Amino acid sequence: GENVEQHPSTLSVQEGDSAVIKCTYSDSASNYFPWYKQELGKRPQLIIDIRSNVGEKKDQRIAVTLNKTAKHFSLHITETQPEDSAVYFCAAKYGGATNKLIFGTGTLLAVQP
Amino acid sequence: NAGVTQTPKFHILKIGQSMTLQCTQDMNHNYMYWYRQDPGMGLKLIYYSVGAGITDKGEVPNGYNVSRSTTEDFPLRLELAAPSQTSVYFCASSYPLRDQETQYFGPGTRLLVL
Q1: Which of A66, A106, A113, B45 has its CA 20 to 30 A from that of B62?
Q2: Chain A within 8 Å of B108 (Cβ-Cβ)?
């Protein structure tokens, strides 16, 4: 079945450093890849997404890259700040028009001041 | 817009009891979803709906039931609760259109089955 693998499970960086989280997916028909940020006790919130017709997308300090051939995509956060500390989930759309998402297991990012 | 709302925020349920988790959205989204999130894990899809009167199973549907009588509401029913159903439950909704796939999540319901 469909699967998304996410690495690393935990990531600790110094404030100002960059952080990279990587995901691989199994369904070659997937064409939409969102990233969600979840703070402790809160709901997941979309921070950036990318579609399969695009290789890279940026939004200020956040960027996502997609390699469709290798079936992997990555989240890049530059100039990290303490408020970036959270759990980040990648996801891949499957099931065609039903817009179902399959999620990775999450990365706990800790930004040390 | 209130977005996606869920009730209750927290509930303790005894083994074998039943309850309904409520989810409502005011964004006129056709698509709605129920997920569960276990500690340290990602989100697993329980059931989803592409419109009023239409529901289907996700990855982990056993022990749950849903209904969708209106566009706004998508309740999740737990029958004969078991400790394995202790989890945080999130409802989400989205448009059915390409390029508008973003799923918006509710605040979650934390359920403890003892």
Answers
A1: A106
A2: yes
Q: Are B43 and A99 inside 8 Å of each other by CB? A: no
The Cα–Cα gap between B89 and B86 comes to: 9
Q: Which of B26, B23, B7, B2 is CA-nearest to residue B111?
A: B7
C-alpha distance across the termini of chain A, in Å: 41
> Whose structure tokens read 């990233």?
A35
Nearest CA to A25 out of A55, A64, A54, A66 is that of A66
Contacts of B39 (CB under 8 A, 6+ apart): none
Distance of alpha carbon B92 from alpha carbon A14, whole angstroms: 34
The mean predicted confidence, pLDDT, of chain B is 95
- Is the minimum CB–CB distance between B106 and chain A shorter than 8 Å? yes
Say which amino acid occupies B111.
L
